Input
Amino acid sequence: MADFEDPNPFGDNENEQTAIIEAPAVEEASEAPATPAKAASPPTQQRQPYRSYPGLSPKTGFCCVRDEYLHSDDAEILIVDALKMTDHTGKIYIAYVIRTGTSDARRRYSEFESLRSGLVKLYPTLIIPPIPSKQSLGDYAIKQSKAKEDTTMISRRKRMLQAFLNRIARHPILSNEHSFHRFLDGEVSWSEVLNSPPMSLAPKHVLRAPPHNPTDPNPHPGYAALPSPSAAASLRHPDQRFLDSEAFTNKFASHLGGTMEKVTRRTMKRWADYSQDNAELGAILNGFSLSETGQLAVAVERTGQAVDATYMSTTRLLQDLEQSWAEPLH
Output
């Protein structure tokens, strides 16, 4: 057994998530320095080269060009743009431009959802990285037809969907899935991928399929006889370890989704108000300096410039807080 560290782009190096995977006992390869993120990408943690994972040797056999690129040390997936598109029914949607090396692909949000859903069914024993949630009913009620064009929401989705793709690309098992490689190929229809193996062979009920090979065409008959209990069903003799784990998880989730998230929203709002106040004050001072002469005009103008600098630095602070704290917390 070997430890695989999932480099969460929103965390720090000391608190990375750890998972256990099966790997053959091989001699650990020499570590290579992580490649810094490109200037065009949002701020993320440095990428750990594939060959430096303990217990894993570099991959040599590749199924396609994208598979080979994803297992190179300088591989990085970028979402470089978000375009407003129209489907065959005339419905408007946002397509995200995914750049893998020198090739681009356009995928809409629903296709990201189906990719993650398919990976969950194909790899029920692995934790699949999350994607940003859908827009709430409140967003549609307030902005109605303009909700999908909200630049703030689109920018947030670009960052989080890019983090989702890169976490899959850095996983030693998920990165080998050819359906993921085809998702990054702009010349491949995603609906065609969903209706062809292995996606089309994914079981409807993961509990009734072999966990390490859900697409097995000849599973043991015992899997079909397994019950599919509902989430509300209770066990007669539950294991105390699972009860303790559930209680801890619920308590942890209530802290994150309750007090901590409320305080974060309140803090972000106050910083945003402070930034707006500085923007208005700077404009007033700069205008006031034009109506004065001599040393007073110079002093007022410099004060306005200092307030403008405060506004700019506060705006950058808000962006950093949103990307590195508020978004992962949500």
Remarks:
- Residues 70 and 169 are 6 Å apart (CA to CA).
- Residues 9-52 have pLDDT under 50 and may be disordered.
- The first strand starts at residue 2 and ends at 6.
